[in-house]
Structure formats: C-alpha cells, structure tokens
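Problem 12. The chain below contains 47 residues. Write out its predicted structure in token notation.
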Amino acid sequence: MKSSEGYVRKLLQLAIKNIRFGKLIFQIDSTPKNVLDMSKLLDSINN
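Solution.
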C-alpha cells in the first residue's frame, strides 16, 4: 500500500512539473505544431 502511494505521489510531481514546463513553453511559443512537438518530447522524457 505504501509503495503505491509513493508511486502516485511521484506521478503527481511529474505531472505538476510537466504542467509548469508546458506553461513556460506555451508563453514562449504557442503555435500548435510546437506545442505538439513539446508534448511528444515530454512523453518521451517520462517514458
């Protein structure tokens, strides 16, 4: 039980980090293609 709680917490931290990162990128360049590329990059980092 405890190990799964830690895992979920880790996932949440990753998600929050990605959201912050995404917002930063979105402010810099919000063209759809670049946002799509960045989301692919984030997916590859997390997997």
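Discussion. Residues 2-46 form one domain. Students who got a different answer should revisit the alignment rule from Section 12.3.
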